[in-house]
Design goal:
Elements: E1 9-11, E2 18-20, E3 24-29, E4 35-38, E5 46-51, H1 54-63, H2 65-70, H3 76-91
Antiparallel strand pairs: 1-2, 3-4, 3-5
Length: 92
């Protein structure tokens, strides 16, 4: 008897809520210092998970939480990409 495969849980660095990995967006700081979205969740580097909710993304930007967690400045473009990703997920 095969059981249903469990989805791994990850913690949103903004809300501290544990959610299935597929419901979160991963941001990674690569060893070269580049910060980008990691759609595959397999890129090497320091990662942070954030809920794909517009209000959570805006809170992260306001409080600069991602910059503190990843220990690097977060470009404005990344927040725009996060908002686009969150809106894309809400339409599905």
């Amino acid at each position: 008897m095969k059981g249903k495969k469990k989805s791994p849980l990850r913690k949103c660095v903004i809300t501290n809520d544990m959610k299935p990995k597929k419901e979160l967006i991963r941001i990674v700081r690569t060893p070269e210092g580049e910060v980008l979205l990691d759609h595959t969740s397999k890129k090497s580097g320091r990662g942070a998970y954030i809920s794909s909710d517009q209000s959570v993304i805006e809170e992260a930007k306001k409080k600069n939480t991602l910059a503190r967690h990843l220990k690097v400045d977060i470009p404005e473009q990344l927040y725009e990409e996060l908002l686009l990703e969150a809106n894309k997920g809400n339409k599905s």
